[in-house]
Q: What sequence folds into this?
């Protein structure tokens, strides 16, 4: 059972969101992908935050560390 929540944000962890597949997408670049929750938990632990996962997924995005701050559009629809 997934815990969909408008109250969740990037501080949410994989422990809180139990969807078997986690979708990640960037509104600005049009990139998207799917990550298996079980693989993420095995590699990073259930306590990993979506903020950390976002930084890993967006690695190399020049918008993530621009002069104007974080302007990267990477997001997780399960947190909406």
A:
């Amino acid at each position: 059972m997934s815990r969909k929540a408008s109250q969740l944000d990037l501080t949410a962890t994989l422990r809180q969101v139990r969807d078997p597949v986690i979708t990640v997408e960037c509104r600005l670049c049009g990139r998207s992908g799917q990550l298996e929750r079980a693989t993420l938990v095995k590699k990073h632990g259930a306590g990993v935050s979506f903020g950390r996962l976002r930084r890993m997924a967006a690695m190399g995005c020049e918008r993530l560390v621009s002069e104007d701050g974080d302007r990267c559009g990477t997001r997780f629809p399960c947190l909406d």
